[in-house]
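Example for tutorial group B:
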């Protein structure tokens, strides 16, 4: 994209009162972003109000600095590009959603590839989303499902948020697969800062994508808005854990409205983080226990590693993996899979407090039990 064309697209997105819908109408009428700003006031008034025509004829004060910032960013490496509506590098899947973004900023290995190959050749994408405050088991599930599915050839899409999103990206990378992070800020900043190292790993093996101009801070309104891109890029959306009032349910709803598959992992009936998934299942989402369930629903062949005996394994459902001694441990049996207090465990087992705490510590150190806020303990599925 030459600087003049880029300047026109930036001006279109920066002009007050011009949203995506209005911009698409202007592009349809005049053929290109540059052509819009070559029109007379009278011509522009025919497509809108006097206020809109005046706004389009007034150059935004921030345009010059935004253009220079964007050019500098593009020239900083060959792992970045900008795709505008209609470009060859623009993901074709987004053309079918209700509100396709006008511009997409792309950073990473896949961004470089998108400039060289047709977008139709990309791997099948699956969105994995969920709570920012998951249970330890929920976070482990997200990581293991992403690892198994990425190992089977899927590209995992998520939002780089804390919790399930971060675990999904990490799992995809551990599985040697591709992952795309759709973020709610400009690509010159990472939010949350805790995921700075993860963002660098994603850029090396996948792509970070945003519709927001460089310099855009983490504004709350932008995060629900980016969810339509997460679902739009993907063949389906897997919700790992979500409360009833959750942005993940927005992504699932958008996926359903876009005609995509919706999957949900069930959890404890006592866990608030499971209620959103249970609500989705009641509404017709596919209940998922194994990565194989997702692949079968998407009519994709089984391939890659079957994992390490986790619930995300591509293999068939069955008993605990060979060598797993948890079934013989009476304390694990007493724990079940719901969060439980020390007092409740003491009542179930009859163990003295000191002995019970020692055994719990041993199980915690071996990765079979997690300690939760409020003095609760939760059994973890064997990994």
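The residue assignment follows.
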């Amino acid at each position: 994209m030459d600087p003049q064309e880029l300047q026109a697209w930036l001006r279109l997105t920066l002009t007050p009162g011009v949203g995506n819908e209005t911009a698409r109408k202007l592009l349809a009428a005049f053929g290109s972003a540059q052509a819009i700003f070559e029109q007379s006031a009278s011509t522009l008034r025919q497509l809108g109000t006097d206020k809109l025509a005046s706004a389009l004829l007034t150059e935004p004060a921030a345009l010059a600095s935004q253009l220079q910032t964007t050019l500098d960013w593009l020239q900083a490496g060959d792992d970045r590009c900008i795709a505008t509506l209609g470009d060859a590098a623009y993901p074709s899947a987004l053309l079918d959603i209700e509100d396709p973004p006008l511009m997409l900023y792309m950073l990473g290995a896949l961004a470089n590839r998108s400039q060289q190959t047709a977008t139709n050749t990309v791997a099948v994408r699956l969105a994995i989303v969920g709570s920012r405050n998951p249970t330890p088991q929920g976070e482990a599930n997200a990581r293991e499902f992403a690892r198994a599915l990425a190992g089977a050839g899927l590209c995992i899409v998520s939002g780089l948020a804390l919790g399930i999103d971060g675990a999904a990206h990490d799992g995809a990378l551990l599985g040697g697969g591709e992952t795309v992070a759709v973020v709610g800020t400009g690509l010159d900043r990472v939010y949350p800062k805790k995921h700075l190292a993860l963002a660098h790993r994603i850029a090396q093996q996948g792509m970070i994508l945003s519709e927001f101009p460089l310099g855009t801070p983490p504004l709350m309104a932008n995060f629900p808005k980016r969810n339509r891109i997460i679902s739009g890029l993907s063949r389906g959306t897997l919700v790992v854990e979500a409360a009833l009032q959750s942005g993940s349910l927005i992504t699932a709803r958008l996926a359903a409205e876009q005609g995509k598959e919706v999957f949900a992992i069930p959890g404890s009936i006592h866990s608030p983080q499971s209620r959103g998934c249970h609500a989705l299942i009641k509404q017709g989402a596919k209940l998922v226990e194994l990565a194989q369930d997702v692949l079968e629903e998407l009519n994709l062949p089984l391939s890659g590693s079957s994992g390490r005996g986790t619930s995300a394994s591509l293999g068939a459902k069955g008993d605990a993996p060979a060598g797993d001694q948890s079934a013989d441990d009476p304390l694990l049996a007493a724990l079940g899979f719901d969060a439980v207090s020390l007092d409740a465990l003491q009542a179930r087992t009859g163990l003295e407090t000191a002995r019970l705490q020692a055994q719990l510590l041993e199980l915690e150190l071996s990765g079979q039990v997690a300690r939760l806020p409020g003095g609760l303990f939760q059994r973890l599925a064997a990994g």
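Confidence is low (pLDDT under 50) at residues 304-310, 315-326. Compare this with the pattern of hydrophobic and polar residues in the output above.
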